[in-house]
Amino acid sequence: MTNTQLTLVQIDNYGPWTVTPDPRREMDLQTLQSRLFADLAQFVGARDGYVFFTRFDNMVAVTNGLDHADHELLQESIGNRYPVTISLGVGVDKNPAVALERATDVVQRAGSAQDGDRREVLAGDTIPDADRTDGDVQIAHFDVNDATGKYTDRLNEFDTFIHIEQGYASLMRHLREEHGALSFFVGGDNIISVTPDLSEADYRAAIEHVEAEADVELKVGVGTASNAHEAGFAAKHALEDCRHLGTTVEFATEPAEIADD
Amino acid sequence: MTNTQLTLVQIDNYGPWTVTPDPRREMDLQTLQSRLFADLAQFVGARDGYVFFTRFDNMVAVTNGLDHADHELLQESIGNRYPVTISLGVGVDKNPAVALERATDVVQRAGSAQDGDRREVLAGDTIPDADRTDGDVQIAHFDVNDATGKYTDRLNEFDTFIHIEQGYASLMRHLREEHGALSFFVGGDNIISVTPDLSEADYRAAIEHVEAEADVELKVGVGTASNAHEAGFAAKHALEDCRHLGTTVEFATEPAEIADD
Amino acid sequence: MTNTQLTLVQIDNYGPWTVTPDPRREMDLQTLQSRLFADLAQFVGARDGYVFFTRFDNMVAVTNGLDHADHELLQESIGNRYPVTISLGVGVDKNPAVALERATDVVQRAGSAQDGDRREVLAGDTIPDADRTDGDVQIAHFDVNDATGKYTDRLNEFDTFIHIEQGYASLMRHLREEHGALSFFVGGDNIISVTPDLSEADYRAAIEHVEAEADVELKVGVGTASNAHEAGFAAKHALEDCRHLGTTVEFATEPAEIADD
Amino acid sequence: MTNTQLTLVQIDNYGPWTVTPDPRREMDLQTLQSRLFADLAQFVGARDGYVFFTRFDNMVAVTNGLDHADHELLQESIGNRYPVTISLGVGVDKNPAVALERATDVVQRAGSAQDGDRREVLAGDTIPDADRTDGDVQIAHFDVNDATGKYTDRLNEFDTFIHIEQGYASLMRHLREEHGALSFFVGGDNIISVTPDLSEADYRAAIEHVEAEADVELKVGVGTASNAHEAGFAAKHALEDCRHLGTTVEFATEPAEIADD
Questions:
Q1: ipTM of the modeled complex
Q2: What's the top EC group for this one (chains A, B, C, D) (predicted)?
Q3: A120 contacts in chain C (CB < 8 Å)
């Protein structure tokens, strides 16, 4: 059974900082946000977690495998190298949406995102090593069927983008409302969801829903492991199976060979 | 009258590269994508343009002020420092959607995004210096009313995110279909649109549409200049006026004091 | 007694790559080199190790605390995100110079740095966890007395730089020849040395040697721990003691309070 | 005749910042320093200038081609994205050492590098466009003969490093004292010097001096242009000529074909 550990990463007092004393150059803000995200992706990714850019001032990470000391180090390192600081809240639950609620709650209770005095909250409990299992994290990796042939090589980029967004918006709402799963667009035509234990039927239903509501055809690879990297890697391999076999839903039955070279 | 110069930035052969010889660690892909975007933001931003991350493998830039040599240098520098290369297509029109169509078209005609042989396309004509005017670029900067009070400090981050996405999806479709304007989520609760000449009534209509369709309240600052940075900076200042005056739509009547310190 | 684990990081085939098919823009090479070093510093630093930029195409890291899997992951991640790959050789010995010889040797035996076919060597044995002790790594952190008052605020930058270089060159040779210690300039007026077990008398002799040979006055803080970060942090605190007490050599007698916030 | 425009880049109040309220993790400082340098390299390099990391808290740039507005933008952008700010002083003279003296002087007159109140100095005059000529910048690119065969593939990395350092220290002092030329190690076995107008005899004398004093054999390519990039690129091509022809000193007689693809 899944046991998702999520960490909410929130930049402290960011809104006010971006306009004080005056509005800052937009491209400098974009650069800062993206590079901060990239550093989080490297730190968390090297510990076999996942981070999603989400809204950039608020980011969601799947941190099964990271303990309190890891979170503390991450926060310290960011504070040493950026003109802003981050607050970190951790939440755990078999249901991702509930886990995120807990993560958000411990940060909110410490103060507003725009509270001039609230800095570097570090709260919430990580899963003790002894309690971790191979079923803790389920990751589903979706992509759009033949996006390049249907969209990228034929429409102007914005209309391709609108199609992908429609598919994403539909999937994100459906999976959140039906299952408490959290879905994130990760670039190209790819969406990664952190889910509770879902079945093949659940995924088929989601894919049919998106096709009906947004006229976008998805396929999905699903993996489960003790951490996001291994679950996600297995999901990627399963997605490659979809591509080769021409199928719509594939589960990684065994852990993907994590050939890390 | 607006005369928008847009550049489509497309990573060559990216889909195949990400899975050859095997799928790559997702967090490494996220890091590469974000840092590539950050470098584009710095290069284009320093020349007073804007870049939007869009789908990361395909990005849209407002490049009024950048000439052919600038595009060539950007392409060379990326090619020297990343394991991938980029193709650049430029398009110009008073209507942003048409400009992007032109930009996409010159790249597509050179070959598929996943053509193993197509690399570093550099095509399309930039606006000659002599033809540039202070009315070339209109930028509208939207944000969600009291996002922190209504969402960030109260809901779990994903539900806040879903609300912001609904607002974005609604605005992006409306502005594209009604006016050929292109809208991009840039983090937090901010959306930046590149528009043709729109009136206060057009913006009010767009904001009412989004409130009705997605139940999200927006306000907007609008600026016009010969380049995206100045237009966008004026728009940011106008948005601050909305904040202080409690209004919904504000146009920067004079160029914002660009106090670049 | 010290037991230094050093890793040689060597970019594969870099010389030829920088001029094939033609010489590349120098500032792009500088950017790539610096950002690669920064990524190594983050990865190794987060595991409590140290990395020194050395020659940039060849870098030296103190990797007590990193195991084989860590090295493999580092190599994979760099290979995913840069247009070059790295070879890693590990060597262990109570004497740092001997450890580095071993590290260099395992890479050299696999092939030349400019061998077109040699890529991503990963060789050498890391210290088993059970064999690690609190005396494994000794770090000495030197800085120049009153560099700002004597040099930075008075001479032109290059002449200040020449003075610092003289001090560095003298110290690096003396410590290497006398003790097999390896010294690295790390910016400003700071030099960090990885040493075997040296005494206060050894450090006083080194400082006197540098004053006599290069007319540069140094002071030093020394720390010892199971890894470079803790040893180095203790050394930094000891150096602060020199500053406050007006002394020349200070050893951290107890582990510095590693207040990691 | 040369007319070198140099900019001193100095991080404001850096020494105190690195230890306030407590010493910061060394690898975070290394990361910040390297990434700041990389950003300077990109900004200045894209405008055809050169930057040298020098001491990281103080860096030297050849900025022929950058005007006051460029310097102001660079300073603003760094201030928006880093936890530190930079002061910039510009100096111009046919002799590089004198130019740097002027650049350092305008910063020093505004206050100490560690003055808690001195921030973001921006002083000194850039060369007016109309006064620029193709002879303004002379760049000499040195490398060590057969460094890979003699050192990298045979000695341990630190002893190779010591040899390269000896060669660098000898060259830097000789060229500074004899000619006011400024030399910078740029990685691998490469040294780049910014020189006044020097002759083939001057370069031969420098190379002989280094061989006699440090037992390191150098060869050099020399280029001249209106900016550092073009002069340096021509120098690199001339160095390739040395490699192919087996010569020791080569001047780029015509501008190198700047094939910027």
A1: 0.94
A2: hydrolase
A3: 261
